[in-house]
Amino acid sequence: MKRFLLVGVSLFAVAAATSASAEDYPGQKAKKVCDPYVNYKCLDGYLGTGFFERFINYYKLEWGHDGPPVDPKAPPGRRAYWPATPQSVPPYPFTEWPYGGTENLGVTRPNSADSPLMVALANTQLGEIMAAGNMQVYGWINVGGNISSNGNRPGGNWPISYAYTPNTVQLDQAVVYFERVPDTVQKDHVDWGFRLSAIYGENYRYTTSYGVASYQLLNHNQVNGYDFPMVYGELFFPQVAEGLLVRVGRYISIPDIEAQLAPNNYMYTHSMTYTFDNYTNEGVQTTTALTKNWFFQLGVSIGTEAAPWHLGQKIANPNPNPLFPGPTMPIDPGAVPSVSAGIRWQSDNGYDNVYAVVDGINAGNWGYNNLQWKGITWYHKFDEKWHFSWEAYNLSQYRVPNGLFPGGLITGTPFSSFNYNSPFLAQCKDPNAPWCTVNVYATVMYLNYKFSNLDTISFRPEYYNDANGQRTGTKSRYVNMGLGWQHWFSPQIEVRPEIGWDHSVDGPAYNSNATSNNVLNVVNGPGCAANGHFLGAASGICPNKSSTYFGAIDAIIHF
């Protein structure tokens, strides 16, 4: 609690310090006379010349505003005939209705990130070189905390994510992007781009791909770790229909309202619908704007959260069994060629967007995270104040080992050697079956109200049916509700307080330490699976609560 209060005090201090008047700073009176929001030519004079001077002054300049000063000489940010822009940042986390695996076609310009760091670098030799090459480096720091009715640590809030340890303050993510964004507004030349990203903090555990620095999570279960969720190159071909973008590398999976990166979300915590589905793919993803309204996506990857170098790789089988009967087995059965496809429609006025996707489709055999995703999202804007985002999907996997089976499956799987965070087993309808097909049925909605250019409120109701307990470790239906307020002090600093209630309909699912131990080594441990309901606790620390109440808040500081 003490640390949680300190975060609030610190945020207040930042607000107070940044909103101080110009008279509090020697030599700043002249800068009051010239306002870059009134006269853009004043900008460089206001910012000054030194790196740190420009960096700090840019935060001061934008404080209380909902965007940077507008350069009257800047080229148009979208094609004139393109559907209308539905939203703005701030107060929302996006301007275009989200779709993954691509830049926003028809509305993306180079050097368009509003970054204090790039402003500070602008009149340096490095900044001039980067500007000439249309390259930018920027990022953010995200810190948050929660107060919960759960008490077991770590992991007592599980399956609530991004705040899975109760009553704590944590570094959620520190993120850096280095990128060049292709110009998708123009239609006269092929353009290119890339993104190199790095993340450090507690949230690395949600982006981890097996085989990509995964030792941190699977061998040591480190609280904080690093990852590289996006490492890709891009080519944009404007001559193909209304534009074709090809992305190659590691990228965020194409479906979903939510995303791993903090600024891309309405609220601090995430829905279970997002927590337990596809996060990243590694392969080739194409997106074609067939018309200004219709978009088609097709991609080939190595699976979901799977490393390309695991393709075809075998390891010794210490305990042959009906599922893996031979002396060797795949290192990751999910590391196989997979297909993703999507179709997207947006209305001319920008008020509606429908996006249907299948993601990571292959034979579907149980893997580290080999999820067969089939779903749809719908965004609808009622007016300038109200809109909703709705998503529904089915997840499935095949030949998932039955955690209730009396045979020798537990130590004879590709993940038996993991120390922590193995994929969960299934709780099959037939306890004598060695494996079964598992399914999840989920839906979530965000109902959003904008009451100022810097403030929104979001209500998140959700239904999540983990029909076989394979995603959460608990076979249950979940009903969850969250209410959050998003307040921006400026385009660079925001806070997101929220309250939530999460309920497991079919029995206790909260207040365990399921995420901190290897389920394959402890299934049927002391008192934990006597009723076949929960597979995942260690040392007898089983879930003992069916409902969770919590409050949470985070802060995002962009640079």
**Measured distance between first and last alpha carbons:** 28 Å
The count of DSSP E runs of length 2 or more, i.e. the number of strands, is 20
Number of helices: 10
Kindly provide the radius of gyration, computed on alpha-carbon positions and rounded to a whole number of angstroms: 24 Å
Helical proportion?
A: 10-25%
- What is the mean pLDDT? 90
* Structural class based on helices, strands and sheet pairing: mainly beta
Give the ordered list of helices and strands. HHHHHHEEEHHEEEHEEEEEEEEEEEEEHE
Q: What is the approximate shape?
A: globular
Main beta-sheet strand count, sense and barrel state: 18 strands, antiparallel
* Low-pLDDT sequence parts: 1-31, 515-527, 529-534, 536-540
Strand content: 35-45%
In short:
The protein has ten helices and 20 strands. The protein has 559 residues and is mainly beta.
Can you offer a commentary on this structure?
It is a single chain. The chain has 559 residues and is mainly beta. The protein is 12% helix and 35% strand. It has helices at 2-18, 29-33, 43-47, 51-62, 116-121, 125-132, 204-207, 215-218, 272-275, 519-522, and strands spanning 135-148, 168-180, 191-201, 225-227, 231-237, 244-252, 280-289, 294-304, 314-316, 328-330, 338-346, 352-361, 372-381, 386-401, 435-452, 455-466, 476-490, 493-495, 498-504, 547-558. β15 and β16 form a beta hairpin. The longest helix is centred in the first third of the chain and has 17 residues, at 2-18. The radius of gyration is 24 Å and the shape is globular. The two termini are 28 Å apart.
